[in-house]
Amino acid sequence: MKRVLITGAAGNLGTAMRKKLAGWADEVILSDLNPISELGAGETFVQCDLADYDSVMALVEGCDGIVHFGGVSTENTFDNILNGNIKGAYNLYEAARKHGIKRIFFASSNHVIGFHDREALLDAQSEMRPDSLYGVSKGFGELLAQYYFDKFSIESALVRIGSCFPKPLNRRMLSTWLSESDLAELIKKVYAADRLGCTVVYGVSDNPSTWWDNKHAKFLGWTPKDSSEVFEQEAYLREEVVDSSDPAVRFQGGPFAKAGHFEDD
Ligand code: NAI
Ligand code: 15L
Q1: DSSP run (H or E) holding 12
Q2: Which keywords fit this entry according to its UniProt record (predicted)?
Q3: Which residues are registered as beta bridge partners of 104?
């Protein structure tokens, strides 16, 4: 990889992946609304609002690949979601089309399918059942990516990330946890594949309990190495009280499925 663009580079995953992917690309363009002050070898920072069409056009020019983490990452006002995730996704794919970018790693979310019960085992063909306006915006991004593949042959990995944090933060995340190392390996596999198509991948580690089956993405050869099992006995998870009738426990999206609209909360 010669020149890769990472959007949302000042955020949690952007920051973690910069370190994990050091040396993977010759040049890394880091972009975010928020500034990044300390740059490593080969890194350049460009401040950019994804909702600004002209800025995104300039940002994407000359890149070989895009790892798209930028945008609103939890439930928020519709205006913020509209700018970051809907206009932002459109501007990015349109810039990719105009500048001949062939492949995009799109950070989607498990909240696209968050209203499925936890007893269901989902795969790439399962119905979207978003649990929030945030989840709806990720569904828009996935459909947009499919459209740009079908019409313009821009390939995408639609990675429905579970919960990517250094460790699971609650009992739900024992099933949804994705380690940072497994995410970094997935990014490399997405760019190493001869052919990607427009493929849904559940971004989840090899946890003992899972709601997601990646059988349709087997061709990528991604085998997560980490497991939430090592955290299972930690006191903060064992002591958490859960109520099986609580919608936050019934549905895969957890608390996202329970809360009202952001403005009403
Ligand atoms: P984050 O909120 O830490 O980072 C997102 C970054 O995007 C922020 O630095 C923010 O400044 C930037 N951003 C927001 N609106 C923008 C705009 N209009 N223009 C330019 N930049 C903008 O989120 P995190 O955890 O790093 O997640 C990265 C991506 O992965 C997000 O798209 C999120 O939806 C997705 N994801 C993350 C999961 C996780 O467990 N961390 C789970 C599922 C999906
Ligand atoms: C997400 O989509 C969010 O970006 C992240 O902050 C977590 O809430 C994650 O989902 C999750 O479901 O745990």
Answers
A1: helix 12-20
A2: NAD, Oxidoreductase
A3: 66, 156
> Running DSSP on this structure, what letter comes out for residue 221?
-
Distance, CA of 62 to CA of 76 (rounded, Å):
32
Domain total of the chain: 1
Determine contact, residues 144/96, Cβ cutoff 8 Å: no
CATH of the domain at 35: 3.40.50.720
238 membership: H or E segment, kind and range = helix 235-238
Dmax over Cα atoms in the chain, in whole Å?
53
Asked if residue 211 lies in contact with residue 116, where contact means CB atoms within 8 angstroms, the answer is: yes
Q: What does the angle CA 14 – CA 18 – CA 20 come to, to the nearest 5 degrees?
A: 115
Cα 24 to ligand 2 centroid, rounded to whole Å: 26
Which domain, by its residues, includes 45? 3-264
pLDDT tens string, the chain, 265 residues long: the values are 899 999 999 999 999 999 999 999 999 999 999 999 899 999 999 999 999 999 999 999 999 999 999 999 999 999 999 999 999 999 999 999 999 999 999 999 999 999 999 999 999 999 999 999 999 999 999 999 999 999 999 999 999 999 999 999 999 999 999 999 999 999 999 999 999 999 999 999 999 999 999 999 999 999 999 999 999 999 999 998 999 999 999 999 999 999 888 877 5
Q: How far apart are CA 127 and CA 108, in angstroms?
A: 15
